[in-house]
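Submission sheet (multi-component)
Chains listed below:
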Amino acid sequence: AQSVAQPEDQVNVAEGNPLTVKCTYSVSGNPYLFWYVQYPNRGLQFLLKYITGDNLVKGSYGFEAEFNKSQTSFHLKKPSALVSDSALYFCAVRANTGTASKLTFGTGTRLQVTL
Amino acid sequence: EPEVTQTPSHQVTQMGQEVILRCVPISNHLYFYWYRQILGQKVEFLVSFYNNEISEKSEIFDDQFSVERPDGSNFTLKIRSTKLEDSAMYFCASSEKRGTDTQYFGPGTRLTVL
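Outcome: structure written.
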């Protein structure tokens, strides 16, 4: 079975400071990893994904994530946070098998960026 | 930019009633999904659909649930006899391919069962 852990319910950071939102995963075989963001009363918006290749993946709005196979982690990062980044962030994993399609999500981390 | 749309945004129903949640996936996408998020909990996979048949479903997706693509644009989720515990936000998603492809999500339908 595949699973995702987001150990922090909330991350607080001051605007302009770097941010990290943590994610670890468990899946059979090689993973496909995704980050989504959810703003209030909105759906899930895709930020970035790791499929293969370079362990550092760049995505929308200046976000990036680093895939670390030995630590089974896929932490989301941004060098300089904005107040407008405040939202709920979800990490998700999908198994790299022929028939798999479902995404398994973590419980989400609320990012609060303050002035 | 193409988007997944869902209607209605909020549905209130009585326990035991049937509800149909509607989704219009992105037009060139071939794979369709339903997920749900009970308030305060994680997003959970319900079902995936391709080529007019279910390709994968979770334990949640029991006989009370069904999906259909009634025409070339709509994708629906039907709950035959709603229970209180079906109250949740239901998200539709679509992807162009299955493998490595990104699933794009709609804004969700909040279902409240009284």
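Remark: The mean pLDDT of chain A is 93.
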